[in-house]
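Feature request, filed as a ticket because there's no other form

It would be nice if the structure record came with a short human-readable summary line next to the tokens. Right now we just get the raw output. Example of a typical job, pasted below so the devs can see what we mean:
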Amino acid sequence: MTRWDAGAVLDAVERHGVTIMVGTVENYLELMDRPDIAGRDLSSLRMPMAVSFVRKLTPEVRHAWARVAGPGSVLREAAYGMTETHTFDATPYGFDAGDRDLLAEPVFCGVPVPGTDVAVVRSGTLEPLPIGEAGEIVVRSPSVMTGYWNNPAATAGQLRHGWLRTGTTAASTRTGACTTSAGTRT
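Raw output as currently delivered:
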């Protein structure tokens, strides 16, 4: 599909038995607002993932999705990440019971995906901070970019010894997860 079309998405889910879908929160709201949604079979869609670009995924949206798609289709935030890292550095999967992932304050990012190291460090350094202390998220993985195109100064400012400085303010938790104050930068 070259452009978003809610009707075509529903057709594809039914026709092909789609199991995984990534869309913005607005995409899921549009699907739920379709007059034909009650007659659609979304039972194959086991891993719907939302991306909160403009509108944040809330428990209300998650529960509304479960009413139209069925209880086995839990709408979750897709991931924490950046373009420079492949956009999937930490996942909130497994933390949806009681909407823990959506109700956490500050915002819950999840736990690092396999092969990705995420640390919270003192801003401007690579000095790890104690659990619960706010600092900057740094990411290291094979998928971290090697540099900005034709911009060595920007590259030098973001990459340090294989770690990408994200500029995102966060704290680590005892479970190995990160929480961040949405939109805050170091």
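Something like this underneath would help us a lot:
Helices lie at 6-16, 25-33, 59-69, 100-103, 152-158.
The chain has a mean pLDDT of 91.
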